[in-house]
Design a protein that fits this description.
Elements: H1 9-23, H2 27-35, H3 40-45, H4 50-68, H5 83-100, H6 105-126, H7 134-142, H8 159-181, H9 189-214, H10 219-251, H11 253-262
Length: 263
């Protein structure tokens, strides 16, 4: 049966909500509102080698998350995602990170990232995606590249679809490798390229998180709150992303993209 070329009013409203999640201001704006001051003040408080620490921690976190998180989703039940439980868990890890500062990032970030990817997979399942499918696992990983617009991005285009286009080749190569080898080996070139591409975007948001936690008044309680915002940001990206993918399965990718761009 041919796919419909027009979204129903209900599905168009759903897509509009998804776009509002995917294209809204990211973590930095939320943190600035929380602190009552520009996040740049936090960057000024970071040590000279913070970029290197963030890069290493980000890539390590993504490698561990890819190999662990989606494997915990073992059944095919479609039910509402448990966003609050994951929010609580990541808040606890943020409290630890907030108390110890940037030094704890290599330890705390893989934990919080794995919890977040588990939450993303939960959201994917709630939107009808098969979480045992390699494509869904990689779509979950894509979420970490969203909401961190690069200075090189074309501001006239959708940040969401620009990110998907950027990742398309790396995702295809990684999917082919995993289908052949049956395992996501972080050292394999196809997997390494995907992780590096996602890390270049995820690192922007992680840097904003690190800057927020570097503010002296943050501490453990603030660290938990920052991590809660961190989780909320990527849960919103996941809800938007997997809503779009669900509609694409129903109407076709081109139809959904055209509707998205006209909203």
């Amino acid at each position: 049966m041919a796919k419909s070329q027009t979204l129903t009013p209900e599905d168009l409203a759903t897509l509009k909500h998804a776009k509002s999640l995917l294209e809204n201001p990211g973590l930095a704006a939320k943190v600035t509102n929380l602190l009552g001051a520009p996040i740049e003040k936090g960057f000024e408080a970071l040590p000279d080698n913070w970029r290197e620490k963030v890069t290493l921690a980000t890539e390590s976190a993504l490698k561990k998350a890819l190999s662990v998180a989606v494997r915990t989703m073992t059944d095919g039940k479609v039910e509402p995602p448990n966003d609050r439980w994951h929010m609580l868990a990541v808040g606890v890890s943020g409290a630890i990170g907030g108390a110890a500062g940037l030094a704890a990032l290599p330890i705390e970030l893989p934990v919080s990232t794995t919890i977040m990817l588990r939450s993303i997979a939960d959201i994917a399942r709630s939107e009808g995606s098969d979480v045992q499918d390699v494509a869904t696992g990689l779509a979950c990983m894509e979420v970490f590249a969203m909401g961190g617009r690069s200075p090189d991005d074309d501001a006239t285009n959708s940040a969401y679809f620009a990110t998907r286009t950027l990742l398309a080749r790396s995702v295809t190569e990684a999917a082919e490798f995993i289908a052949e080898k049956g395992v996501a080996e972080a050292g394999a070139p196809a997997i390494a390229r995907l992780i590096a591409t996602i890390a270049s975007r995820f690192g922007i948001t992680v840097s904003e998180k690190a800057a927020a936690q570097a503010v002296p008044i943050i501490g453990a309680a603030g660290g938990a709150l920052i991590n809660t915002l961190f989780m909320d940001h990527f849960q919103n990206m996941a809800h938007g992303h997997f809503t779009v993918l669900r509609l694409e399965r129903q109407y076709g990718a081109e139809t959904v993209r055209l509707a998205y761009e006209t909203i």
